[in-house]
């Protein structure tokens, strides 16, 4: 998280809503040497207390889960390079605008009997965003193939104990400079710059 608290102006609900709708993040667990990292889709409960996910059984993180372990899921949003020229103000330096939400808690394995239900709920959530396409479901699979696949993955969940978000959208600049960045950042280097521009304009109008 960015140390400047001016970029931490989103309420907990907004951070949770963002993480829930994004539904994909970087899972990090401490280990000897470098942290273990895995990129995982997840489901966040409506109350924000549980993040449910699954991993391939051979994932090194799974081997650590003989008991619950501290973990964090970093959820990234749109981001983009900010050129100082866009501020139309002297003596500025380059920076990077972005949105990121961190969910911190205790990660645990769940009984294998829960895997099918989790897989069904995850696919239903993702497929709902593809309507009017008829939703895919595990019922479309050959039972033997599904059973083989299910033996290769394990369910897990993280009890969320802390939520923090950085919405770095040039809040530390005057409105005119913020508009200048929002109008130009769509052409910049980064990811989902149009979404980042839209978020910047929404935040300006809300203040």
What does this protein look like?
29% of the residues lie in helices and 33% in strands. The protein has six helices and seven strands, in the order αβββαββααβαβα. The chain has a six-stranded antiparallel barrel. Helix 5 (175-184) packs antiparallel against helix 6 (193-206). The two termini are 22 Å apart.
Distance between the termini: 22 Å
Work out the helicity level. Answer: 25-40%
The sequence of SSEs as H and E is HEEEHEEHHEHEH
Alpha-beta classification: alpha+beta
Principal-axes shape call = elongated
Give a quick precis of the structure.
The chain is of the alpha+beta class and 207 residues long. It is built from six helices and seven strands. It has a six-stranded antiparallel β-barrel with strand order 1-2-3-6-5-4.
Detail the topology: elements first, then pairings.
Elements: H1 12-22, E1 24-29, E2 36-44, E3 50-56, H2 60-64, E4 69-82, E5 95-109, H3 115-127, H4 143-150, E6 153-168, H5 175-184, E7 190-191, H6 193-206
Helix pairs in contact: 5-6
Overview features:
6-stranded antiparallel beta barrel; 207 residues; alpha+beta
């Amino acid at each position: 998280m960015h140390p400047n608290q001016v970029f931490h102006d989103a309420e907990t609900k907004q951070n949770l809503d963002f993480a829930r709708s994004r539904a994909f993040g970087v899972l990090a667990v401490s280990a000897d040497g470098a942290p273990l990292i895995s990129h995982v889709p997840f489901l966040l409960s409506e109350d924000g207390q549980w993040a449910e996910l699954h991993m391939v059984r051979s994932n090194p993180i799974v081997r650590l889960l003989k008991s619950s372990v501290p973990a964090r899921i970093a959820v990234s949003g749109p981001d983009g390079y900010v050129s100082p020229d866009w501020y139309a103000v002297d003596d500025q330096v380059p920076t990077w605008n972005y949105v990121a939400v961190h969910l911190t808690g205790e990660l645990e394995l769940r009984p294998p009997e829960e895997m099918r239900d989790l897989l069904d709920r995850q696919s239903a959530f993702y497929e709902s965003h593809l309507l009017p396409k008829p939703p895919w479901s595990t019922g479309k699979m050959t039972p033997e193939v599904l059973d083989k696949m299910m033996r290769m993955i394990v369910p897990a969940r993280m009890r969320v104990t802390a939520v923090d978000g950085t919405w770095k959208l040039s809040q530390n600049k005057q409105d005119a400079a913020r508009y200048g960045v929002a109008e130009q950042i769509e052409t910049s280097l980064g990811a989902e710059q149009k979404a980042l521009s839209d978020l910047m304009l929404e935040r300006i109008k809300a203040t």
